[in-house]
Amino acid sequence: MFNWMDQFFGLQENGTTVKREITAGLVGFFTVVYIIAVNSLILSEAGMPLEAAIVATIAASVFGCLIMGFWGNAPILLVPGMGINALFSYTMVQSMGLSWQEALAVVFVSGVIFVAVAFTRFAKILSAAVPHSLKEAITVGLGLFLMLIGLEKGGIVERGTSSILALGSLAEAQVLATVLTFLIAIVLFIRNVPGNFLITIVVGTVIASFFGLIDFGSMNESSINATEAFAVFGALSFGNILSMTFWVAVFSLTMVLVFENIGLVHGQVAFIERPEKFGRAFQATSVSAMTSGVFGTSPTVATVESAAGMTAGGRTGLTTITAGLLFLVASFFIPVIKLIPDSAIAPILIIIGGLMLQNIKNLDMKDMTESFPALLIVALIPFTYSIADGIAIGFILYPILKIATGRSREVSPILYVIAGLFLANFVFHYLG
């Protein structure tokens, strides 16, 4: 058996062993398992049944990890992405008015386009067409948006009476529980404690129980049946496919998917010094993202937490397959996952958002034609509660500033087309 694994995954060639790969898979899984609870709760904000969202998250993670393991043969974990799940629930559903079934159709169509990009040379062409500053701004804007969502879910900020936002009351149990959990979470994270997010969820749930924020009576409820568990599987609806709103959502999601994963996969295969694995790993990522719409969740991405497994020695797809099988085991703990409160999840959103915000250091602040469109993306994504609108305004302003300063040749023809499409959407949507 071990000989077969060695030959299939190239263990000796990659300087690793079965034991090391399985250990790395365990480490990677416990680093990213928090996504089951976090992603499910965010999907439920779009109106999805929580239990079905949990099953969909697990199913998409299992499939993503297995296809990456067998096809990409890289230790890159594919799970529903943070930031993109916010785009799904808060922008496409709550802001743009799509139903969650229609939003799943958007995920599938975006995934099909992503597959077309990944299996052709168009990935390099598209990546080269969009300026580095705008790519970085999308990541930073998503980070600020996640931080805001975390602060709101924890009750730390709320809608103000004399201002847009105001601090929540520390006299409230939810706010106190969130603050205490956050202090523990940030200390664990800074000290790089293994499985820090998982520990945060467990400790945060215990703290919430002390404040009476958890209804343990739900544990005694009868288990859900198959119909309820798979309520979102294959539920995607193409009824709105001819509308401008649908295609704006497709375009925005595709932009985020392609550029985020190009950066993540490139960085991760470089980390293990195997750049030749990029092609297949990127293709596996695209197929996984496409099937997410069928499973009933926001798209999977090459998660940042993959670095934990790589640091533990993971070098091949065996690491990813191990993590994928562990996600399958997690399906037996759905009643426990349902108990996890917002106060235990909010600190993780705040920390992940803060990590994404650090990319702002990569912006060239000396060149206003580069930095100002990027900063508008960063500001408008959380302020408008719309990732699509934030991206659109930055992409429209960029070529305008380049033309105004006599530097129109710095803008690629493809970017002019993208900006034109975004501008046309604004004209039709707001003036039509």
UniProtKB/TrEMBL annotation:
Membrane topology note: Multi-pass membrane protein
The keyword Membrane is annotated on this UniProt entry: yes
Pfam families: Xan_ur_permease
Transmembrane segments: 22-43, 50-70, 76-93, 105-122, 134-151, 163-190, 196-217, 229-259, 318-337, 344-360, 372-401, 413-431
InterPro entries: Azg-like (IPR045018), NCS2 (IPR006043)
Family matches, as PANTHER family: XANTHINE/URACIL PERMEASE C887.17-RELATED, XANTHINE_URACIL PERMEASE
Family label: Belongs to the nucleobase:cation symporter-2 (NCS2) (TC 2.A.40) family. Azg-like subfamily.
Record protein name field: AGZA family xanthine/uracil permease-like MFS transporter
Lineage: Bacteria, Bacillati, Bacillota, Bacilli, Bacillales
